[in-house]
Design a protein that fits this description.
Radius of gyration: 23 Å
Distance between the termini: 35 Å
Low-confidence stretches: none
Largest sheet: 2 strands, antiparallel
Order of helices and strands: HHHHHHHHHEEH
Strand content: under 5%
Number of domains: 3
Organism: Mycena maculata
Protein name: SWIM-type domain-containing protein
Number of helices: 10
Keywords: Metal-binding, Zinc, Zinc-finger
InterPro entries: Znf_SWIM
Strand order of the largest sheet: 1-2
Helix content: 55-70%
GO molecular function, one term: zinc ion binding
Structural class: mainly alpha
Number of strands: 2
Length: about 230
């Protein structure tokens, strides 16, 4: 499910040739995988639910990345869930089973003004002339970019030091060190990285919330001559 969710016609497959699949092929493969899993595990009711609510063409276009022409960065389901979470815990926390007219009133009087202020801030229409601090997502992508800019040896050494500095009785400490040692001796893969289209078929690119990976970041740094962010 996770692999099919992140697939897109513009993102090459993780194979030697960097094969591109069409949107129809991605949808067909996703349906086949889910159907085969449900069939082999005798999950008829689960398949009925998954097909009617997720995999039918009418529902597929609402959540699958492959249904869009461009590669979407935001996940629709997560955005909607976040909106309802804030609505329930911030505006409806004092109400149990509120009436529809009350919910509508709270959305108009409480939610819309907050959304308008946020939109004005994003568009640079508030606090004009004053420097703006970085948004939370900008802080995250900057930290991620700087981390991916470092060499593999540097990043691996930092991970090992972090584990070694932890207490000896920390759960999973030994297993983590063994994984890092195995990673140190593992051969580096060869991936199809296209900075012009900003795509890469490495396992880290598609699930990344900012659609970046160390291969794209390092190639971009070369072209930018390591200019500071």
């Amino acid at each position: 499910f996770r692999i099919r969710f992140h697939q897109h016609p513009e993102i090459p497959m993780a194979d030697e040739n960097g094969t591109f699949l069409s949107a129809e092929e991605i949808h067909y493969g996703a349906v086949q995988d889910m159907y085969r899993y449900c069939f082999e595990n005798d999950l008829a009711q689960v398949w009925a639910y998954m097909w009617n609510r997720w995999y039918t063409p009418k529902q597929w276009c609402l959540w699958a990345r492959a249904a869009c022409d461009a590669i979407p960065r935001l996940k629709t389901t997560m955005i909607v869930e976040s909106l309802w979470k804030h609505l329930k815990h911030r505006d409806l926390a004092q109400f149990n089973c509120p009436r529809l007219d009350l919910v509508t009133h709270l959305i108009i009087t409480n939610v819309f003004p907050r959304v308008s202020r946020t939109l004005a801030y994003v568009r640079g229409q508030r606090r004009i002339g004053r420097p703006k601090e970085l948004a939370a997502w900008q802080v995250d992508i900057k930290a991620m970019w700087l981390d991916m800019s470092r060499s593999d040896d540097h990043r691996l050494t930092e991970k090992q030091l972090k584990v070694l500095r932890s207490a000896r009785n920390t759960k999973g400490r030994t297993e983590r060190l063994e994984l890092l040692e195995a990673e140190e001796g593992r051969e580096r893969g060869t991936y199809h990285t296209d900075i012009e289209r900003w795509t890469c078929n490495c396992p880290s690119f598609a699930p990344n919330r900012f659609l970046i990976c160390k291969h794209l970041v390092r190639e971009a740094n070369k072209r930018l001559k390591d200019s500071p962010l």
